[in-house]
Design brief:
8% strand; Rhomboid-like fold; mainly alpha; rod-shaped; three-stranded antiparallel β-sheet; Alpha-Beta Plaits; single chain
């Protein structure tokens, strides 16, 4: 073993061979005479005693410049306390008590259902009004339950106002794209398009969060896979409107991805309340246009 007190050299202990060799490169670049040595598995860099302070200073500078970056821990995702998803579910059931089940002579269904031909001819209010109509009690109760679960999760992530707009916009866009895809002989009602939008938005939001944490793509894409799995389980049963469900999921994923990338923290309560009122007003205006 080299003797640290043996003149004319002072031996600087390194933590590994790689570190000793890195120090050697630094010292060589600075023109400091030295040599690398090892004994019993331990590595040293020997420096002339008169150059020790200078060598240590250059090594310290190199170490600080090459230290691994320690990024601050990612801020936890917001979990805003709200039961608004439950109250939206109650509103769906209450509105069903007003409209009743699907009936050809009903003005609500005649003027509010998502009829592809009429949507494409300019009756765009239908992409919104159709979200609040349901064909029978089982239909509305199933969607109300899903809204209480997935709607609540979305609103707790983004807040009542912003979450309501993500829910409404993904459903409306899903209905519009369904009409464009089907073109003719297509009629649809139900909030499930918006609810699959909520699933898509939540999945995309989790994808963005995982990428921010620098997780591997195999882990980051799991939320999207989960959303597709939920589509397979909940949205492809007998009588389900698969086109609307797929379009809602896709629109929700797109909107959720943009929102998660652009919005680092939810808007303050006052703005959330204003956005929620605007979402409610958009639904009311759509029905005014439908029945006016």
């Amino acid at each position: 073993m080299p003797d640290p007190t043996d003149p004319p050299e002072t031996w600087l202990p390194a933590s590994s061979r790689a570190e000793a060799e890195a120090w050697s490169l630094v010292l060589s670049a600075e023109g400091i005479l030295h040599r690398v040595g090892a004994t019993e598995g331990r590595w040293f860099v020997g420096v002339e005693s008169g150059s020790v302070a200078r060598a240590q200073a250059h090594i310290a500078t190199w170490a600080s410049e090459n230290a691994p970056s320690t990024a601050p821990p990612a801020a936890p995702d917001p979990d805003l306390p709200t039961n608004a998803g439950f109250w939206i579910a109650v509103a769906l059931v209450a509105f069903f008590l007003v409209t009743g089940p699907w009936a050809p002579e009903s003005a609500y269904f005649r003027r509010g259902a998502a009829d592809a031909q009429r949507i494409l001819s300019g009756e765009l209010w239908r992409i919104v009004t159709a979200l609040s109509l349901h064909s029978d009690p089982a239909h509305v109760l199933g969607n109300a339950f899903s809204c209480a679960v997935f709607g609540t999760l979305l609103l707790r992530r983004y807040g009542v106002g912003l979450g309501a707009w993500l829910l409404l916009a993904s459903g409306a866009l899903g209905n519009l794209l369904s009409a464009v895809w089907e073109q003719s002989m297509y009629r649809s009602v139900g909030a499930s398009t918006a609810l699959f939008g909520a699933i898509g938005a939540l999945a995309a939001t989790e994808l963005v969060r995982r990428r921010r944490l620098a997780l591997g793509w195999n882990q980051a894409w799991l939320p999207i896979a989960g959303g597709i799995a939920l589509l397979a389980m909940l949205g492809t049963g007998r009588g389900s409107d698969l086109t609307a469900h797929v379009m809602g999921l896709a629109c929700g994923a797109g909107l959720g991805f943009v929102a998660a990338r652009a919005i680092t923290s939810p808007p303050p309560p006052g703005m959330q309340a204003a956005l929620a009122m605007l979402a409610l007003a958009a639904v009311a205006l759509a029905w005014t246009a439908a029945l006016g």
